[in-house]
Design brief:
InterPro entries: RNaseH-like_sf, RNaseH_sf, Tc1-like_DDE_dom, Transpos_IS630-like. The protein has about 170 residues and is of the alpha+beta class. It has one domain: Nucleotidyltransferase, domain 5. It contains five helices and four strands; from the N terminus they run E-E-H-E-H-E-H-H-H. Strand 1 and strand 2 form a beta hairpin. It is globular.
Length: about 170
């Protein structure tokens, strides 16, 4: 999420371009999530760059929430395929396993629908003034979705992600 991301719409008098006031500060936060067809959501909001270290931290947190093996579908981001992640997975092969989507196929990733929902759901009337506020708003979205399993299950209803429900 970026502070200068365009969200929402506004109105203006005919022939007059509306001006939306905001600071010139640019800041961002990153977030990653894992969702299940049963409506569960796990997430992590962070300010550092997404790399293998962050991915291993997320995998450890995710594996710690389950008493059975987790099968995680991921895209082919370089952090997902890194040596450090492969080494972490080798040490935890009974806890978690990654399954890779084909290259350049965001339409097959239901988590992309979570990202779109997040961007649509950020407040339009109040913009975060700093990184901390943006992180708080982002976390608030994920906490709200955790309490709405029917919406999380709905992410799997998209035309291209229904393959996950097939058995």
């Amino acid at each position: 999420m970026r502070s200068d991301q365009v969200t929402g719409r506004t109105w203006g008098a005919k022939g007059i371009t509306p001006v939306v006031r905001r600071t010139g500060n640019r800041f961002s936060v990153n977030a990653m999530s894992a969702i299940s067809t049963k409506g569960r959501m796990h997430f992590m909001v962070f300010t550092e760059s997404f790399d293998a270290k962050v991915m291993c931290r997320f995998l450890a947190r995710l594996a710690g929430h389950f008493d059975r093996k987790v099968h995680l579908i991921v895209d082919r981001h370089s952090a997902h395929r890194s040596k450090a992640v492969r080494a972490w997975l080798a040490d935890h092969k009974d806890e978690i396993e990654l399954h890779f989507l084909p290259s350049y196929s965001p339409e097959l990733n239901p988590d992309e629908l979570v990202n779109a929902d997040l961007k649509r759901s950020l407040p339009h009337t109040h913009r975060a003034r700093n990184q901390s506020e943006l992180a708080t708003e982002t976390s608030r979205f994920f906490h709200r979705r955790q309490r709405q399993p029917h919406i999380v299950r709905g992410y799997f209803g998209g035309q291209y992600v229904r393959y996950i429900l097939d058995e």
